[in-house]
Specification:
It is built from 18 helices and 5 strands.
């Protein structure tokens, strides 16, 4: 991955290039950025830049043996850790899914966790970084570098590490072998151990600027008026922009499910709710969590419409057409209650609650709140 292949984020690129030029490469760093901001591609480009045999002041050369291997994610001194799903035979580690991981990242380095887990399982499982992974990390870091000056360990979504794995990495993060680089690529540091945070330099990667997303979409031949609409609705998230132009379809399916759900809740059609609950329970936990996040967004945007703040309501044309009639039912009397119930449902799904019981109970609560 080259810096030039990353959308926007010029100030972050400049900071990283300057650190390399000055020889100030911190042994442990956290690249903290929201979904769709490019934190994973940034980590890959930074690692490639450090290892490049002929780098310029601006970027990696892209053609030396090191860059060629980095482009294929097969460099022997690049190690990657990411959430995986549990197996019945033995504790899982990232290496078990390395082929799928390389293909997924090369195809879309801006992917999110749900997209990744969906590639490696169709079962109702959540992704995690489990205790067995710590042994693999320590083993790989103990090896001598093969070709580069630095060994690099990129940990994507470290907030998915369980406590046993995280605690076993504390010492190596504080005192790693010489010329070893840890890059933790995170979206939310609130669930990370404070002892891990204290050992890492924080690199903040902000939401993308509208002009940067617009320029990226123009390269995909997106024309007006869709170009401006998708740029605005993406709200700094390139993955969201991609979904809006049809290269991902999870928002579309969630929209259809949400509108059906709201109509049956308002009409108090309990038999229809039971069918809807069965369908939603079959999504799997990651899909259910995505749906609840989507529902929270729709509630927020509809409340903006009710409040007369349509300029900051981020809705697609189809969503806006539905919300034109729906938004009065999301108002100051019920918005807090609906948002709270959706958030609690997300938490309970993440804690392995029974999906059918949870979504039926949630539907009945939403029914009551919509009539306030």
């Amino acid at each position: 991955m080259l810096f030039s292949e990353i959308i926007g984020q010029e100030s972050v690129k400049n900071q990283l290039r300057h650190n390399v030029a000055e020889g100030r490469i911190s042994h442990a760093q956290i690249f903290l950025g929201p979904e769709g901001s490019g934190s994973l591609p940034m980590a890959l480009a930074y690692s490639q830049y450090i290892s490049c045999e002929n780098r310029s002041d601006i970027d990696s050369c892209g053609v030396c043996p090191s860059c060629v291997k980095y482009a294929k994610l097969i460099h022997p001194d690049l190690h990657m850790v990411y959430p995986v799903v549990k197996k019945e035979t033995r504790p899982p580690v990232s290496e078990d899914f390395i082929g799928e991981w390389r293909t997924a990242v090369i195809e879309n380095p801006y992917m999110n966790l749900n997209m990744w887990i969906g590639r490696i399982t169709t079962e109702n499982k959540q992704g995690g970084i489990f205790e067995a992974e710590s042994g693999e990390i320590l083993r790989k870091i103990s090896l001598k570098s093969f070709e580069s000056d630095y060994k690099t360990m990129i940990i994507w979504m470290p907030e998915k590490m369980n406590s046993s794995c995280a605690n076993k990495l504390l010492k190596i993060l504080e005192e790693p072998p010489e010329k070893t680089l840890f890059i933790l690529v995170a979206e939310d540091t609130s669930t990370l151990l404070t002892t891990i945070l204290s050992r890492c330099q924080l690199i903040k990667i902000p939401l993308l600027q509208e002009e940067d997303i617009k320029a990226a979409l123009q390269k995909l031949n997106v024309a007006e008026p869709d170009l401006s609409s998708y740029t605005h609705l993406s709200n700094g998230n390139y993955l969201k922009a991609m979904s809006l132009i049809g290269q991902a379809d999870f928002d579309r399916s969630h929209f259809e499910s949400f509108t059906k759900w709201m109509r049956m809740c308002y009409a108090q059609r309990v038999p229809d709710m039971l069918d809807w609950v069965d369908t939603t329970a079959a999504l799997g936990r990651e899909g259910q969590k995505e749906f609840l996040i989507f529902s929270l967004r729709m509630v927020r945007e509809n409340f903006m419409l009710t409040s007369g703040a349509s300029d900051i309501a981020y809705l697609t044309g189809e969503e806006n057409a539905f919300s034109a009639k729906f938004h009065p039912y999301i108002n100051e009397r019920n918005v807090a209650g609906i948002a709270e119930e959706l958030s609690k449902a997300h938490y309970h799904i993440e804690s392995n609650a029974n999906a059918k019981i949870l979504f039926l109970d949630l539907s009945l609560k939403i029914t009551r709140l919509l009539h306030q």
